[in-house]
Amino acid sequence: MASNASERPPVIGITTYLEHSAFGIWEAEAAVLHRAYVESVCAAGGNAVLLPPIGDWRAETVDWLDGLVLSGGADIDPARYGQAPHPTTGTPQPARDTAEFALVEAALTLGLPLLAVCRGMQVLNVALGGTLHQHTPELVGTTDHQPEVAMFGKTELTVHAGSRLADVLGRSVHAHCHHHQSLDRLGAGLDVVATAQDGTVEAVELRGAVFVLGVQSHPEQNVDDVRLFAALVRAAQQRKGAR
Question: Where are the chain's structural domains?
Answer without folding.
Answer: 8-242
